[in-house]
Design brief:
Helix 7 packs across helix 9. 34% of the residues lie in helices and 17% in strands. It has 373 residues and is an alpha/beta fold.
Length: 373
């Protein structure tokens, strides 16, 4: 199943034409609406959010304190269960050094910051329990490698939602030195909703949906900070990836007799126009990293990096330095002082729905799109 056309590269090797978010656009319809009358709410499992945005589990974006701030703005914030806040009692000095390091020294600094201090399960439990005391939806992300060890810790401490996130996540993670992680068996034993990913194809998404996941992440995460395409040659443009995974969601809905799995775009959405187009391609929610890392109150202080940047042997990411554009509140709800799509992300989404005549996000997934490049 694919919406991408078949192309002969040479000999017997064929490929599919795929489109990135910068290669497509939304076509206006015959109807418009008042922007104040559209809904951008998102409900997953028992949890309802005013905005369909998810703060990515990146140390430069989500700390325990910023999770509370972002939650108050109406979105879901996800704490990295293997990040600095699960390794250090107070990582602020490390965050400051990462932000101030030169390009030449930052790679080694990142690797040392994460390798010198192992994840402390009790500290992760303490952070999760504290989030619960603040009255927010406590969401924790872990990698497939650490899922079996850390998810029970987070859930026992009160986590409301778990995200199993990696560059590529399969329904069965096989390793010669550990027991295979069978996601279907594992998810059925977890008492809270589980979101898994990334994936970028119809078939991979369908397999993940069959595990019982509440949501599937589309993409490889950390679009602006990720160099996986340069290092591994692995990349699927996001517009096509979202559309393919949305097709898998539709077919799984029929296959399962009505079970709806949420499609969450993850990566390559640094500006509001990209976010809007992700919803038009079929996403139910958007996981944001760079867009939030530009906030003046982000914990990274403008420095932005993902988990791949501190891999000990094969780093596939980098630290970016981003100019501050405003507070979290201004980035999400405005008012915007720029015309470049970095502020008032929620306002842009509402305006796009209104301009095309749709009243909510599920309707908006049917909007007409055009290829621009």
């Amino acid at each position: 199943m694919s919406s991408m056309s078949d192309i002969v590269i040479g000999g017997g090797k064929r490929a599919r034409r795929a489109y990135g978010l910068d290669e497509v656009a939304i076509a206006p319809s015959r109807r418009t609406r008042n922007w104040q009358e559209v809904s951008t709410s998102w409900t997953i499992d028992a949890y309802r959010f005013e905005l369909p945005f998810v703060a990515a589990p990146m140390d430069s974006v989500v700390s325990p304190d910023s999770a509370v701030t972002l939650s108050a703005l109406g979105m879901l914030a996800v704490l990295n269960g293997e990040g600095l806040w699960a390794r250090y009692e107070d990582p602020q000095a490390i965050l400051d050094r990462i932000a101030g390091a030169s390009t030449e020294e930052v790679g080694d600094l990142l690797r040392r910051a994460y390798s010198d201090a192992p994840v402390q399960p009790q500290l992760l439990a303490t952070r999760t329990a504290w989030l619960k005391t603040q009255g927010v939806v406590a969401a924790v992300a872990v990698s497939p490698h650490s899922t079996a060890e850390l998810v029970p810790v987070a859930v026992d401490a009160g986590a409301d939602m778990v995200i199993i996130r990696g560059s590529t996540v399969s329904a069965e993670h096989v390793s010669a030195d550990t027991n295979p992680l069978n996601l279907k068996d594992f998810i059925h034993r977890v008492e809270v909703p589980v979101i898994v990913g990334g994936c970028a194809t119809y078939q991979a998404a369908l397999h993940l949906m069959r595990t019982g996941a509440a949501g599937v992440l589309v993409g490889f995460g950390g679009g602006a900070t990720l160099t996986t395409a340069d290092v591994l040659g692995v990349r699927v443009p996001m517009a096509s990836a979202i559309a393919d995974v949305a097709a898998a969601r539709r077919d799984y809905l029929d296959e399962s007799g009505g079970r709806y799995v949420h499609v969450i775009a993850d990566g390559a959405m640094g500006r509001s126009g990209d976010i809007v187009k992700a919803f038009a391609c079929g996403a139910d929610a958007a996981m944001l990293g760079t867009a939030l890392a530009r906030a003046s109150d982000a914990p990274g202080s403008g420095a932005h990096w993902g988990a791949e940047a501190w891999h000990r042997h094969l780093p596939r990411g980098q630290r970016n330095l981003l100019p501050a554009v405003g507070t979290f509140a201004e980035v999400i709800n405005g008012p915007s002082r720029t015309a470049d799509g970095t502020m008032n992300l929620a306002g842009a989404l509402r305006k796009a729905l209104a301009t095309t005549g749709y009243s909510d996000l599920k309707e908006f997934q049917r909007v007409e799109m055009v290829v621009t490049q």
